[in-house]
Write a structure and sequence with these properties.
This protein is mostly helical. It is built from 14 helices and no strands. The termini are close together.
Length: about 325
């Protein structure tokens, strides 16, 4: 296990290095950077000259957009990033790691609850659909799964707001707390939960279909295996066959899928948070990307890349826990 982890970590460092190069070049090739966007009006009015803008770009370290200039800037960024220094955000005026640390926990709380609900709903429904193949339950689950997969997040979020906030008035329209009054203690917690019901509902509906279909497909494959027929031939109850034998062997592909959900837990739901005006890391990064905030975009993207690598490693380790036959080398 130790040798395996060392090997995977070494490969992960190479992967992260390659990812950082690609992301940095893409960000630097954006049509308008942070300085261009914030000086366009002054340049148009004659308050600033192109030379002034260029000097400002050089001050921010984005003055030279040639290949050599970008490589030089990337080298400077990489030397600082190796020391866990991702610079200061242009937009938020604070160190990137502080901004990420402040906003990611809001996204984590929302995404974690949504993931737990997703697991509790999707896996049982997927098992029911597999055991009742081509029955009424199977068709209902399949339709629900397709609806969840097909709906765009911005459309579903806007629809829920239109029905339950504007139409019925059951839930707040946007935000994380009631700005009209000062609330403390347990009432403040209840107020936040009240504001987060619709965003979490949106995330659950959007993600429930994928895991549900994944569980159904793998359960059908396992239920058609020879050892399942043998278990039934021995006279075991159908409940024991499904939950003790079949479902246990379905866990490996499910663990793979759940391992990939780790980046989403901390990375936030960009569109959903924007629709509901939730100050999470998703909406925060969206604002930074729109304004060409290179330090924040690089720090955020590398944060997601690291979580993706860790999620993959944890999924591999979970294989050995779920199935003792799997050997990590």
């Amino acid at each position: 296990m130790f040798k395996y982890l060392i090997k995977r970590l070494a490969v992960s460092i190479i992967i992260l290095f390659g990812v950082s190069i690609i992301i940095y070049f893409i960000v630097r090739m954006m049509p308008a950077d942070y300085i261009d966007q914030h000086t366009a009006a002054q340049v148009a009015q004659g308050q600033l000259t192109k030379e002034d803008v260029q000097r400002m770009k050089e001050l921010y370290g984005i003055g030279d957009n040639s290949i050599g200039g970008i490589l030089k800037s990337y080298g400077q960024w990489l030397s600082k990033a190796a020391r866990a220094d991702f610079g200061v955000s242009f937009v938020y005026g604070r160190p990137v790691h502080e901004v990420i640390g402040k906003y990611m926990w809001i996204s984590f709380g929302i995404s974690l609850v949504a993931l737990i609900l997703n697991i509790l709903i999707s896996i049982p429904l997927g098992i029911v659909a597999a055991t009742k193949q081509y029955g009424a339950a199977d068709y209902i689950v399949t339709i629900l799964a397709m609806i969840g997969i097909s709906l765009p997040s911005f459309f579903l979020g806007a629809l829920l707001l239109r029905i339950f906030s504007i139409g019925l008035g059951w839930f707040p329209l946007q935000g994380l707390s009631d700005a009209t009054q000062i609330i403390k203690g347990f009432k403040q917690v209840l107020d936040k939960i009240h504001h987060l019901v619709l965003p979490m509902t949106t995330l659950v509906i959007l993600n429930i279909g994928g895991l549900m279909r994944y569980t159904r497909t793998n359960m059908l494959e396992v239920l058609n295996s020879d050892y399942i027929r043998t278990a039934r031939a021995k006279g075991l109850s159908e409940k024991a066959v499904i939950y003790k034998h079949a479902f246990r062997n379905t866990l490996i592909p499910i663990v793979t899928m759940l391992g990939g959900s780790i980046p989403g837990l901390f990375g936030g739901a960009l569109i959903t948070e924007t629709v509901f005006a939730i100050p999470g890391i998703g909406s925060t990064s969206y604002k930074a990307i729109l304004q060409g905030d290179i330090p924040f975009v690089m720090g955020y993207m590398m944060f997601i890349a690291i979580l993706t690598v860790l999620g993959t490693i944890l999924a591999d380790i979970s294989y050995a826990i779920v199935d003792p036959r799997v050997k990590l080398q």
